[in-house]
Amino acid sequence: MSNLLSVCLYNTEPESSEELRAKIQGLNFVRLAAEVSSPDELANFLQTGRANLTFFHLDPDATPIVEVIEQVSTRFPDLALIAFSHNTNPEAILAPMRAGCDQFVCEPIDCADLATAVARVASKRALHDSPSRCICVTGASGGVGTSLLSANLAMEIGTHTEAECALVDMDFQFGDLAMNFDCEPKFTYYDLAASGAELDRSILQGSVEKLPSHVALLARPQQIAEQESILPEIVHRVTELLKQTYENVVIDVPVSIDQRSLAALHQANLILIVCQMTVPSVRNTKRYIDALVHAGIPDDHIQVVVNRGDNSGRVSKDDLEEMIKKPVFATVPNDYEFVAQSIDYGQPIASTDPKNPVRVAIRAMAERIVAGRDDAPVEQKAERRGFLGRLLAK
Q1: Which of 96, 212, 242, 386 is the most exposed place for a label (fewest CB within 10 A)?
Q2: Taking the domains of the chain in order of start, what are their residue ranges?
Q3: What's the pTM?
Protein backbone atom coordinates (compact mmCIF):
# COMPACT_ATOMS: atom_id res chain seq x y z
CA MET A 1 0.00 0.00 0.00
CA SER A 2 1.35 3.44 -0.93
CA ASN A 3 1.98 5.85 1.93
CA LEU A 4 1.48 8.90 -0.30
CA LEU A 5 -1.65 10.64 -1.49
CA SER A 6 -1.80 10.70 -5.28
CA VAL A 7 -2.97 14.15 -6.37
CA CYS A 8 -3.90 15.90 -9.60
CA LEU A 9 -3.68 19.64 -10.33
CA TYR A 10 -6.27 21.25 -12.62
CA ASN A 11 -4.81 24.56 -13.77
CA THR A 12 -5.71 26.70 -16.79
CA GLU A 13 -3.24 29.49 -15.96
CA PRO A 14 0.22 28.36 -17.23
CA GLU A 15 2.12 31.19 -15.51
CA SER A 16 0.96 29.87 -12.11
CA SER A 17 2.01 26.29 -12.79
CA GLU A 18 5.52 26.40 -11.35
CA GLU A 19 4.48 28.04 -8.08
CA LEU A 20 1.48 25.76 -7.56
CA ARG A 21 3.51 22.64 -8.28
CA ALA A 22 6.18 23.76 -5.80
CA LYS A 23 3.61 24.28 -3.04
CA ILE A 24 2.01 20.89 -3.63
CA GLN A 25 5.30 19.03 -3.93
CA GLY A 26 6.44 20.70 -0.72
CA LEU A 27 4.02 18.47 1.18
CA ASN A 28 5.96 15.35 2.06
CA PHE A 29 2.90 13.10 2.19
CA VAL A 30 1.58 13.73 -1.35
CA ARG A 31 2.71 12.79 -4.84
CA LEU A 32 1.74 15.06 -7.74
CA ALA A 33 0.67 12.47 -10.29
CA ALA A 34 -0.59 14.83 -13.01
CA GLU A 35 -1.24 18.42 -14.02
CA VAL A 36 -4.05 18.97 -16.51
CA SER A 37 -5.59 22.05 -18.12
CA SER A 38 -8.81 20.85 -19.74
CA PRO A 39 -11.92 18.90 -18.72
CA ASP A 40 -11.05 16.10 -21.17
CA GLU A 41 -7.53 15.69 -19.80
CA LEU A 42 -8.92 15.65 -16.27
CA ALA A 43 -11.58 13.07 -17.12
CA ASN A 44 -9.03 10.81 -18.81
CA PHE A 45 -6.76 10.91 -15.77
CA LEU A 46 -9.48 10.47 -13.17
CA GLN A 47 -10.84 7.44 -14.99
CA THR A 48 -7.54 5.65 -14.32
CA GLY A 49 -8.47 5.66 -10.64
CA ARG A 50 -5.00 6.83 -9.62
CA ALA A 51 -6.04 10.04 -7.80
CA ASN A 52 -7.04 10.50 -4.16
CA LEU A 53 -7.27 14.28 -4.37
CA THR A 54 -7.64 16.96 -7.07
CA PHE A 55 -6.63 20.59 -6.70
CA PHE A 56 -8.52 23.17 -8.77
CA HIS A 57 -6.91 26.54 -9.50
CA LEU A 58 -9.88 28.87 -10.03
CA ASP A 59 -8.00 31.78 -11.55
CA PRO A 60 -8.30 33.62 -13.86
CA ASP A 61 -11.95 32.72 -14.58
CA ALA A 62 -13.66 30.66 -11.90
CA THR A 63 -17.04 30.13 -13.58
CA PRO A 64 -16.14 27.34 -16.05
CA ILE A 65 -13.88 25.69 -13.46
CA VAL A 66 -16.68 25.61 -10.90
CA GLU A 67 -18.80 23.83 -13.50
CA VAL A 68 -16.03 21.23 -13.88
CA ILE A 69 -15.88 20.84 -10.09
CA GLU A 70 -19.61 20.15 -9.98
CA GLN A 71 -19.32 17.49 -12.68
CA VAL A 72 -16.32 15.85 -11.01
CA SER A 73 -17.93 15.79 -7.56
CA THR A 74 -20.99 14.08 -9.06
CA ARG A 75 -19.04 11.59 -11.18
CA PHE A 76 -16.36 10.81 -8.56
CA PRO A 77 -18.03 11.21 -5.14
CA ASP A 78 -15.11 9.60 -3.25
CA LEU A 79 -12.54 12.00 -4.71
CA ALA A 80 -11.38 14.81 -2.40
CA LEU A 81 -11.43 18.31 -3.96
CA ILE A 82 -9.58 21.48 -2.90
CA ALA A 83 -9.83 24.88 -4.62
CA PHE A 84 -7.20 27.67 -4.83
CA SER A 85 -7.84 31.32 -5.68
CA HIS A 86 -6.65 34.87 -5.10
CA ASN A 87 -10.30 35.95 -5.03
CA THR A 88 -11.45 35.65 -1.43
CA ASN A 89 -14.78 37.43 -1.41
CA PRO A 90 -17.55 35.31 0.17
CA GLU A 91 -19.24 34.33 -3.10
CA ALA A 92 -15.93 33.30 -4.66
CA ILE A 93 -15.36 30.93 -1.75
CA LEU A 94 -18.94 29.63 -1.54
CA ALA A 95 -19.30 28.82 -5.26
CA PRO A 96 -16.71 25.98 -5.39
CA MET A 97 -17.83 24.70 -1.97
CA ARG A 98 -21.43 24.47 -3.20
CA ALA A 99 -20.18 22.69 -6.32
CA GLY A 100 -18.55 19.99 -4.18
CA CYS A 101 -15.14 21.18 -2.97
CA ASP A 102 -14.09 20.03 0.47
CA GLN A 103 -11.72 22.91 1.22
CA PHE A 104 -10.80 26.37 -0.10
CA VAL A 105 -7.23 27.69 0.24
CA CYS A 106 -6.49 31.38 -0.33
CA GLU A 107 -3.62 32.55 -2.52
CA PRO A 108 -0.85 33.35 -1.98
CA ILE A 109 -0.77 29.87 -0.47
CA ASP A 110 0.47 29.47 3.07
CA CYS A 111 2.17 26.05 3.43
CA ALA A 112 0.65 25.40 6.85
CA ASP A 113 -2.86 26.23 5.60
CA LEU A 114 -2.39 23.94 2.62
CA ALA A 115 -1.13 21.09 4.79
CA THR A 116 -4.07 21.46 7.17
CA ALA A 117 -6.57 21.47 4.30
CA VAL A 118 -5.06 18.32 2.81
CA ALA A 119 -4.94 16.61 6.19
CA ARG A 120 -8.62 17.37 6.76
CA VAL A 121 -9.86 16.02 3.45
CA ALA A 122 -7.53 13.04 3.50
CA SER A 123 -8.72 11.89 6.92
CA LYS A 124 -12.38 12.62 6.16
CA ARG A 125 -12.39 10.81 2.84
CA ALA A 126 -10.10 7.89 3.69
CA LEU A 127 -10.97 7.17 7.31
CA HIS A 128 -13.30 4.29 6.49
CA ASP A 129 -10.53 2.54 4.53
CA SER A 130 -8.24 2.29 7.54
CA PRO A 131 -8.32 -1.05 9.36
CA SER A 132 -6.95 0.49 12.53
CA ARG A 133 -8.64 2.29 15.39
CA CYS A 134 -7.37 5.76 16.38
CA ILE A 135 -8.45 7.18 19.75
CA CYS A 136 -7.56 10.78 20.61
CA VAL A 137 -7.77 11.64 24.30
CA THR A 138 -7.94 15.31 25.17
CA GLY A 139 -9.10 17.44 28.08
CA ALA A 140 -11.74 20.07 28.66
CA SER A 141 -8.99 21.90 30.56
CA GLY A 142 -5.56 21.23 31.99
CA GLY A 143 -5.17 18.96 35.01
CA VAL A 144 -8.17 16.69 34.40
CA GLY A 145 -6.06 13.53 34.14
CA THR A 146 -5.80 13.15 30.38
CA SER A 147 -2.26 11.75 30.34
CA LEU A 148 -2.96 9.18 33.02
CA LEU A 149 -6.07 7.97 31.20
CA SER A 150 -4.24 7.87 27.84
CA ALA A 151 -1.36 5.83 29.23
CA ASN A 152 -3.51 3.32 31.07
CA LEU A 153 -6.10 3.08 28.29
CA ALA A 154 -3.34 2.19 25.80
CA MET A 155 -1.98 -0.44 28.16
CA GLU A 156 -5.42 -1.96 28.75
CA ILE A 157 -6.14 -2.06 25.00
CA GLY A 158 -2.77 -3.71 24.37
CA THR A 159 -3.38 -6.26 27.10
CA HIS A 160 -6.90 -7.01 25.94
CA THR A 161 -5.92 -7.47 22.29
CA GLU A 162 -2.53 -9.07 23.06
CA ALA A 163 -1.02 -6.75 20.46
CA GLU A 164 1.04 -3.60 20.70
CA CYS A 165 -1.01 -0.44 21.06
CA ALA A 166 0.70 2.76 19.91
CA LEU A 167 0.68 5.57 22.49
CA VAL A 168 1.57 9.06 21.30
CA ASP A 169 2.49 12.07 23.42
CA MET A 170 1.43 15.12 21.45
CA ASP A 171 1.97 17.53 24.32
CA PHE A 172 5.22 18.52 22.64
CA GLN A 173 6.22 21.03 25.32
CA PHE A 174 5.33 19.48 28.67
CA GLY A 175 4.10 15.96 27.99
CA ASP A 176 4.82 13.33 30.63
CA LEU A 177 3.55 10.03 29.24
CA ALA A 178 6.99 8.42 29.57
CA MET A 179 6.88 9.07 33.31
CA ASN A 180 3.82 6.84 33.62
CA PHE A 181 6.04 3.92 32.58
CA ASP A 182 9.27 5.07 34.28
CA CYS A 183 11.14 5.09 30.98
CA GLU A 184 13.45 7.45 29.10
CA PRO A 185 12.91 6.92 25.36
CA LYS A 186 15.96 7.21 23.15
CA PHE A 187 13.97 8.65 20.25
CA THR A 188 11.05 11.07 20.16
CA TYR A 189 8.49 12.69 17.85
CA TYR A 190 11.18 15.20 16.91
CA ASP A 191 13.29 12.47 15.29
CA LEU A 192 10.38 11.66 12.97
CA ALA A 193 10.02 15.32 12.03
CA ALA A 194 13.77 15.55 11.38
CA SER A 195 13.68 12.58 8.99
CA GLY A 196 11.76 14.67 6.43
CA ALA A 197 10.85 12.99 3.17
CA GLU A 198 12.49 9.74 4.28
CA LEU A 199 9.85 9.20 6.95
CA ASP A 200 8.25 5.80 6.53
CA ARG A 201 6.98 2.90 8.61
CA SER A 202 10.45 1.50 9.27
CA ILE A 203 11.67 4.83 10.67
CA LEU A 204 8.50 5.10 12.74
CA GLN A 205 8.93 1.64 14.24
CA GLY A 206 12.56 2.43 15.07
CA SER A 207 11.53 5.60 16.92
CA VAL A 208 8.96 4.17 19.33
CA GLU A 209 9.84 2.81 22.76
CA LYS A 210 8.55 -0.74 23.04
CA LEU A 211 7.36 -1.40 26.59
CA PRO A 212 6.61 -4.75 28.22
CA SER A 213 3.00 -3.68 28.79
CA HIS A 214 1.97 -4.07 25.09
CA VAL A 215 2.57 -0.35 24.53
CA ALA A 216 4.69 1.26 21.80
CA LEU A 217 5.38 4.78 23.06
CA LEU A 218 6.16 7.73 20.79
CA ALA A 219 7.43 10.32 23.25
CA ARG A 220 7.39 14.11 23.09
CA PRO A 221 10.60 15.96 22.10
CA GLN A 222 13.30 16.19 24.76
CA GLN A 223 13.87 19.91 24.24
CA ILE A 224 10.97 22.37 24.10
CA ALA A 225 12.53 24.21 21.15
CA GLU A 226 12.42 21.02 19.07
CA GLN A 227 8.63 21.14 18.89
CA GLU A 228 8.82 24.08 16.50
CA SER A 229 9.88 21.75 13.66
CA ILE A 230 6.80 19.53 14.07
CA LEU A 231 4.44 21.02 11.46
CA PRO A 232 0.81 19.99 10.90
CA GLU A 233 1.73 17.95 7.83
CA ILE A 234 4.24 15.99 9.94
CA VAL A 235 1.51 15.24 12.49
CA HIS A 236 -0.81 14.08 9.72
CA ARG A 237 1.90 11.89 8.20
CA VAL A 238 2.94 10.34 11.51
CA THR A 239 -0.66 9.63 12.49
CA GLU A 240 -1.29 8.07 9.09
CA LEU A 241 1.76 5.81 9.47
CA LEU A 242 0.75 4.83 13.00
CA LYS A 243 -2.67 3.75 11.74
CA GLN A 244 -1.02 1.70 9.01
CA THR A 245 1.32 0.04 11.49
CA TYR A 246 -0.75 -0.60 14.61
CA GLU A 247 -4.23 -2.00 15.07
CA ASN A 248 -4.90 0.51 17.86
CA VAL A 249 -3.47 4.00 18.34
CA VAL A 250 -4.04 6.20 21.40
CA ILE A 251 -2.98 9.85 21.10
CA ASP A 252 -2.73 12.20 24.07
CA VAL A 253 -3.73 15.52 22.47
CA PRO A 254 -3.09 18.78 24.36
CA VAL A 255 -5.90 21.17 25.24
CA SER A 256 -5.54 23.31 22.13
CA ILE A 257 -7.51 23.57 18.92
CA ASP A 258 -4.72 24.41 16.53
CA GLN A 259 -3.57 23.07 13.19
CA ARG A 260 -1.32 20.42 14.69
CA SER A 261 -4.00 19.06 17.01
CA LEU A 262 -6.60 19.05 14.24
CA ALA A 263 -4.24 17.10 11.98
CA ALA A 264 -4.52 14.23 14.49
CA LEU A 265 -8.11 14.78 15.61
CA HIS A 266 -9.41 14.61 12.03
CA GLN A 267 -7.96 11.10 11.73
CA ALA A 268 -9.53 9.78 14.91
CA ASN A 269 -12.31 7.21 14.95
CA LEU A 270 -13.04 8.25 18.52
CA ILE A 271 -12.28 11.45 20.44
CA LEU A 272 -12.57 11.25 24.23
CA ILE A 273 -12.89 14.62 25.96
CA VAL A 274 -11.98 14.20 29.62
CA CYS A 275 -13.70 16.48 32.12
CA GLN A 276 -14.50 16.77 35.80
CA MET A 277 -17.80 17.48 37.49
CA THR A 278 -17.28 21.20 37.98
CA VAL A 279 -19.12 24.07 36.33
CA PRO A 280 -16.04 25.44 34.46
CA SER A 281 -15.06 21.97 33.24
CA VAL A 282 -18.57 21.16 32.00
CA ARG A 283 -18.85 24.51 30.23
CA ASN A 284 -15.51 23.97 28.51
CA THR A 285 -16.55 20.48 27.47
CA LYS A 286 -19.55 21.87 25.63
CA ARG A 287 -17.43 24.59 24.02
CA TYR A 288 -14.84 22.01 22.97
CA ILE A 289 -17.47 19.76 21.37
CA ASP A 290 -18.97 22.70 19.48
CA ALA A 291 -15.53 23.82 18.25
CA LEU A 292 -14.61 20.34 17.01
CA VAL A 293 -17.91 19.95 15.17
CA HIS A 294 -17.40 23.41 13.64
CA ALA A 295 -13.96 22.21 12.47
CA GLY A 296 -15.62 19.40 10.53
CA ILE A 297 -15.35 16.50 12.97
CA PRO A 298 -18.52 14.36 13.11
CA ASP A 299 -20.37 14.74 16.39
CA ASP A 300 -20.72 10.98 16.74
CA HIS A 301 -16.92 10.65 16.83
CA ILE A 302 -16.84 12.71 20.04
CA GLN A 303 -17.55 11.25 23.48
CA VAL A 304 -17.11 12.53 27.02
CA VAL A 305 -15.34 10.78 29.90
CA VAL A 306 -15.75 11.98 33.47
CA ASN A 307 -12.58 11.59 35.54
CA ARG A 308 -12.51 11.68 39.34
CA GLY A 309 -16.24 11.21 39.26
CA ASP A 310 -18.15 11.25 42.52
CA ASN A 311 -21.37 12.73 43.85
CA SER A 312 -19.84 15.39 46.06
CA GLY A 313 -20.08 18.38 43.70
CA ARG A 314 -22.89 20.66 42.60
CA VAL A 315 -22.84 19.26 39.07
CA SER A 316 -24.55 15.92 38.50
CA LYS A 317 -24.22 13.47 35.63
CA ASP A 318 -27.69 14.54 34.49
CA ASP A 319 -26.54 18.17 34.37
CA LEU A 320 -23.54 17.23 32.25
CA GLU A 321 -25.57 15.11 29.84
CA GLU A 322 -28.13 17.87 29.47
CA MET A 323 -25.36 20.28 28.60
CA ILE A 324 -23.56 18.12 26.04
CA LYS A 325 -26.74 16.55 24.59
CA LYS A 326 -25.36 13.02 24.77
CA PRO A 327 -24.81 10.34 27.42
CA VAL A 328 -21.49 10.19 29.25
CA PHE A 329 -19.27 7.56 27.63
CA ALA A 330 -17.53 6.46 30.83
CA THR A 331 -16.92 7.56 34.41
CA VAL A 332 -13.62 6.94 36.19
CA PRO A 333 -13.97 7.09 40.01
CA ASN A 334 -11.92 9.33 42.27
CA ASP A 335 -8.91 7.82 44.06
CA TYR A 336 -6.45 10.68 43.98
CA GLU A 337 -3.86 9.30 46.40
CA PHE A 338 -3.62 5.93 44.66
CA VAL A 339 -3.37 7.52 41.20
CA ALA A 340 -0.75 10.05 42.34
CA GLN A 341 1.32 7.23 43.81
CA SER A 342 1.08 5.28 40.55
CA ILE A 343 2.37 8.28 38.59
CA ASP A 344 5.17 9.06 41.06
CA TYR A 345 6.45 5.48 40.93
CA GLY A 346 6.08 5.25 37.15
CA GLN A 347 3.88 2.18 37.35
CA PRO A 348 0.67 1.64 35.37
CA ILE A 349 -2.40 1.27 37.56
CA ALA A 350 -2.96 -2.37 36.56
CA SER A 351 0.47 -3.39 37.87
CA THR A 352 -0.04 -1.53 41.16
CA ASP A 353 -3.52 -2.74 42.10
CA PRO A 354 -5.43 -4.70 39.41
CA LYS A 355 -8.66 -4.55 41.43
CA ASN A 356 -8.63 -0.82 42.09
CA PRO A 357 -11.90 0.81 40.89
CA VAL A 358 -9.94 3.25 38.74
CA ARG A 359 -8.26 0.38 36.91
CA VAL A 360 -11.55 -1.51 36.58
CA ALA A 361 -13.22 1.52 34.97
CA ILE A 362 -10.39 2.09 32.47
CA ARG A 363 -10.29 -1.60 31.59
CA ALA A 364 -14.04 -1.60 30.94
CA MET A 365 -13.63 1.44 28.70
CA ALA A 366 -10.85 -0.31 26.76
CA GLU A 367 -12.95 -3.45 26.32
CA ARG A 368 -15.87 -1.40 25.08
CA ILE A 369 -13.71 0.40 22.53
CA VAL A 370 -12.09 -2.80 21.27
CA ALA A 371 -15.49 -4.44 20.95
CA GLY A 372 -16.50 -1.62 18.62
CA ARG A 373 -19.04 -0.12 20.99
CA ASP A 374 -17.69 3.41 20.54
CA ASP A 375 -21.09 5.00 20.68
CA ALA A 376 -22.77 6.05 23.88
CA PRO A 377 -26.18 4.57 24.76
CA VAL A 378 -28.93 5.76 22.45
CA GLU A 379 -31.25 6.95 25.18
CA GLN A 380 -31.45 10.71 25.51
CA LYS A 381 -32.30 12.74 28.54
CA ALA A 382 -35.50 14.76 28.58
CA GLU A 383 -35.05 18.47 28.21
CA ARG A 384 -34.55 20.06 31.60
CA ARG A 385 -33.69 23.66 32.39
CA GLY A 386 -33.30 24.06 36.12
CA PHE A 387 -31.13 26.61 37.86
CA LEU A 388 -27.91 24.69 37.32
CA GLY A 389 -28.79 23.98 33.69
CA ARG A 390 -29.19 27.72 33.10
CA LEU A 391 -25.92 28.37 34.94
CA LEU A 392 -24.00 25.88 32.80
CA ALA A 393 -25.48 27.27 29.60
CA LYS A 394 -24.14 30.75 30.16
Answers
A1: 212
A2: 5-127, 131-393
A3: 0.64
